Amino acid sequence: MSAWSRRGFLAAGLGLAACTRLDRPALGDLYGSAQYRSDQPPLIVIPGAFGSSLRDRRDGHELWPVSNRHLLFSNYSRLELDIDPERLEPLPGTVEAYEIFKTGLGKDFYGQMLRTLQDAGGYSRCRSCDLPRPGRRNFYVYMYDFRLDNVLAVRGLHELIESIRAGYGDPQLKVDVLAHSNGGLLARYYARYGTEDVLDGREFAPTFEGAAAIRRLLLVGTPNLGTMQPVLSHTRGEEIGLNKIPPEVMATCPSPPQMMPHPSIAWLADMDGRALDHDLYDLSTWADLGWSIFDPSVAERTVANHGGGVQGNRYLAMLKDYMAKQFRRGRRFAESLTVPAGERDVRPYVFGGDCEPTLARLVVEEVRGRRMARERVSDIAHPHDDVDYAAAMFEPGDSVVTRSSLLGRVNRNVAAPRNNVEAMRIAHSVFLCEHHQSLTGNPSFQDNLLYALLSADPA
């Protein structure tokens, strides 16, 4: 999930200016002796949403991230997907994911982690078409179009694993998977259901097809019970630098609803701080609140940008039907990962932050007849003196994913017995004081990462 807000970029800049030196463990000394063991299984790195660079395969023109200037000023309207009005599915396009997004605006996202894998971990990067290098540890990066349905991305992950197995000449080969944010949701779905699409209403019956291909699964900042970030993307647009990807563009992307808070999670509160019983995945909720494409200004812009008049209104009506379908799939995706799966499910290693106040629910405030979504306490125009809005809205996390979601827990009390939704069983967890997009560059994370990957018997 992305944390591309102007707050995130500005805070990152201030942090760099204030910091004089960051002590780092001597990872080469700690793990150098392990570099000469070549029996390590191949590793697949899966970035989160917005973590893959996108381009048009016809002419190589990049759509994301393009440049630092684009990150600051563009609204990325070209990320909008064309929709088949009959099937209510994205039309096949010419956009492809071709590289991992390493750095932008002077901020590291995945570059430092990849260097650590190579320099201290002894890994060599391979492409899916490469033959593995004998006597070396090999890692692969799975890039995917983060706008599209997660099940489609899962199928691409399966193809990569099968190509790696073919390269190694071992159809039963197991891989290690290191996944950040939404990448972890892809890996968990694959472990449970393989390439099967269970979001169409059929019974959730895990096959564990993917689990048989995974030795160790390492999740970094993964929203196992969802995150509010895609909700914000639909209410006010996805903040990028000094601009936003408009809500009507985000509405064309099937993946954000598959990262929203689990249906069992309270995502809205009233002005008294009490949870509201509004179904996040029912589009009538959004229509009732007047948010996303039901916001009159967003609806007007959508109509104007798609021919205006009858043509534009026809597109808007189709987009509402399309969103309803994608929200239904979003609900099913969240539920698919919380069905009790037993001992055959992969038990992941979980890494995440728990030092940042992280939005867990919006406050609804009515102002001049409109119900406004408040994501900051300072935005509330007429607060009630006796309500602690910070406590009602925020939980400990990494600024995007709450600690509770990271752990797959509805209840923040980790000593409380698990309920049926809290089905994920964790092998080991590590907590950091770090922002979501900086988790992979954190020195303590990288230390624990190499230990989990290279230890013969990690804790």
How would you sum up this structure, described in words?
The protein is α/β, with parallel strands linked by helices and 459 residues long. It has one domain. It is 31% helix and 18% strand. The protein is built from 14 helices and 21 strands. The strands form seven sheets. The protein has a seven-stranded parallel β-sheet, with helices on both faces. Strands 3-2-6 form a three-stranded antiparallel β-sheet, with no helix packed on it. A three-stranded mixed β-sheet has the order 15-18-19. A hairpin with a 4-residue loop joins strand 4 and strand 5. Helix 10 (296-305) packs across helix 11 (309-336). The longest helix has 28 residues, at 309-336. It is globular, with a radius of gyration of 22 Å. The chain starts with 5 loop residues before the first helix and ends in a 5-residue tail after the last helix. 44% of the residues are buried. The model is unreliable at 3-21 (pLDDT under 50).
